[in-house]
């Protein structure tokens, strides 16, 4: 139980960092929506929601042994972005890149430093959860970040197709979590080994 509580706390801070990164990526491109909404903060209470931040992590942990979750999406207005062609993709990719940077930073500590067993567990959990978040969010299913990156490659004439996908995106995400999320494990395991030299 204590391990699970540590994992939830690490997940919460990791998804907060993920969402704040989206907000700052939009902010530096000229959109103040996230700032005016009070979302450019590391205060978890501004970002969490019951379904993605608590219920789904518990269910995914029980079903697959690892944790998946999300926070309330940080609002932004794509029409305010200076780069209309790639701005939305840059906002989308900022979250996963932040999680990857966190994973690499702590992963290198794990690889090169001598840590006690409790610290090894905590640092390993930080690396693992951030890799899961980055990998999961890069899946090209709306409203995950990977879909926005993919849609940025679409020509404007396919906008209606994007809208149709996004309309049912949440259903696709739940289906993915409950039926396909186990396929994330070998991917995350390979990423973890590449960074740390250890087995996840």
Q: What would your notes on this structure say?
A:
This protein has 200 residues and is mostly helical. It has one domain. 66% of the residues lie in helices and 0% in strands. It has helices spanning 2-27, 33-36, 50-64, 87-112, 117-137, 145-151, 159-167, 169-179, 184-196. Helix 5 (117-137) crosses helix 9 (184-196). It is globular, with a radius of gyration of 17 Å.
Write the SSE topology.
Layout: H1 2-27, H2 33-36, H3 50-64, H4 87-112, H5 117-137, H6 145-151, H7 159-167, H8 169-179, H9 184-196
Helix pairs in contact: 1-4, 1-5, 4-5, 4-6, 5-9
Radius of gyration over alpha carbons? 17 Å
Residues in β-strands, percent: under 5%
Amount of helix? 55-70%
Number of domains: 1
Q: Could you state the order of secondary-structure elements as H and E?
A: HHHHHHHHH
Short description:
The chain is mainly alpha-helical and 200 residues long. It has one domain (2-196).
Give the key terms.
single chain; 200 residues; mainly alpha; 9 helices; globular
């Amino acid at each position: 139980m204590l391990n699970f509580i540590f994992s939830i706390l690490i997940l919460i801070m990791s998804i907060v960092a993920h969402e704040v990164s989206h907000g700052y990526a939009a902010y530096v491109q000229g959109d103040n929506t996230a700032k005016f909404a009070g979302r450019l903060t590391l205060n978890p209470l501004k970002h969490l929601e019951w379904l993605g931040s608590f219920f789904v992590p518990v269910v995914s942990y029980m079903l697959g042994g690892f944790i998946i979750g999300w926070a309330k999406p940080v609002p932004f207005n794509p029409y305010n972005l200076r780069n209309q062609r790639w701005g939305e993709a840059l906002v989308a990719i900022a979250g996963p890149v932040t999680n990857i940077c966190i994973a690499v930073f702590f992963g290198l500590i794990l690889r090169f430093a001598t840590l006690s067993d409790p610290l090894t567990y905590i640092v390993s959990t930080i690396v693992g959860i951030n890799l899961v978040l980055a990998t999961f969010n890069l899946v090209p299913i709306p409203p995950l970040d990977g879909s926005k990156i993919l849609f940025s490659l679409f020509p404007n004439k396919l906008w209606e197709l994007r809208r149709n996908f996004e309309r049912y995106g949440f259903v696709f995400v739940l289906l993915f979590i409950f039926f396909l999320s186990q396929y994330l494990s070998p991917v995350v395991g390979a990423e973890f080994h590449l960074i740390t030299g250890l087995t996840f």
